[in-house]
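Hey, can you fold this one?
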Amino acid sequence: MTRTHSISPFLQPKRPNGLLRHVVLALAITAGGLIPPVSLKAQVAGQGQGAKADSAAAAAAKAPKAKAWYENIRIRGYGQIRYNRLLENNPQLQCEQCDRSWGENGGFFIRRARIILQGYVHPQVFIYLQPDYASSAGTTGHVAQLRDWYVDVGLDKANEFRMRIGQSKVPFSFENMQSSQNRIPLDRADGTNSANANERDLGVFFMWAPRVARERFAHLVNDNLKGSGDYGVITVGAYNGQTANRAEANDNQHVVARVTYPFLVRGQIIEPSVAAYTGMYRITPDQRTSGVKGRADWDYRDERVLATLAIAPQPLGILAEYNVGRGPEYNPARDSIETQSLHGGFVTVTWQHKARTQVFSPFVRYQVYDGGKKHERDARSYDVNDVEFGVEWQPHANFELVAAWYQGDRRFEDKTRPINEQAGRLMRLQAQFNF
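Sure. Predicted structure:
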């Protein structure tokens, strides 16, 4: 039922009776002779002010309402499911940094389960949050773990100068910065990925990139040209150095610097870059076997320099990286962890063919690495010589399949497994969905 509201009869104005109307009229005529009329100019001015007020009110009513910060947040993500046991000839073949479904007792495996929240909550403040629901904790799988949680603070209105604060990818290695959603080979190369487990750490990074470079970085990702994302043209920063989701273990932070530029040459984007980092890495008790020898404080010099050449697949693409340096590595001859030299890299060649909405991307990659992996037990010593080739098929933007043939020869050593020689081959399959 509709409720109506009426004015109390005691508050309503009463209409004047006949005599009162005559008195009011007489007073009005008398006042007209005593009070000068308002000038025409004043009347026009008053009308003008009223018109302006009406116009301003109409404009305010038509103006779009400013968005609340949460209305600028974008939600996206992707997932990956793998099977690695086809045509394998050595069930003992392992790759800890690849995925744990390789070899004996392996089966279908969720490699990625990512949901990403990102957006500008202010024209100069960008936030990025990415958990992964496919991590492992001991024997328990599919555990949620933080991957990225950072804020970009623009130092100018164009956001060409900005500070990145929080846990994010360390700006070292194009392939490390490249999202698994965009990368064609199913896993990152040992030589460069051994610099930072999960590619990330907690720190502060200063980045500068002019508008034209930022537009090209975005073009490479948005147009499926296998870009690395926007990590600046010149980047310097400091981070803990113990890798992602691990507390700082000493009083020394790593420092990193990178210089890159996406040149446009006859319609092709060519991006050369150089990068370097240095710091002290501590081998914590949970990372070493009881009885293994090492430095008294377990702190080891950890430093590298790297060169990269990235050519976007239009249609031929090349990504080549090589780094040299030194870091902790297990020495089986002395049963100790020591600072030793390391070197390694890879080259990936890709061809991208587009047929209407479908994209076919055959590829081949060759990689080598000789050195330690600081984030694995006893800073395992590795000698890697691998080749893989395959094809990525995208029938549309929301789904893709990858089939890859792997042929490898791996040796790794730690205190519990001296001289572990592994050679073998297998066919790998991955289904990925994007949203």
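The mean pLDDT is 88. Let me know if you want another pass with a different chain boundary.
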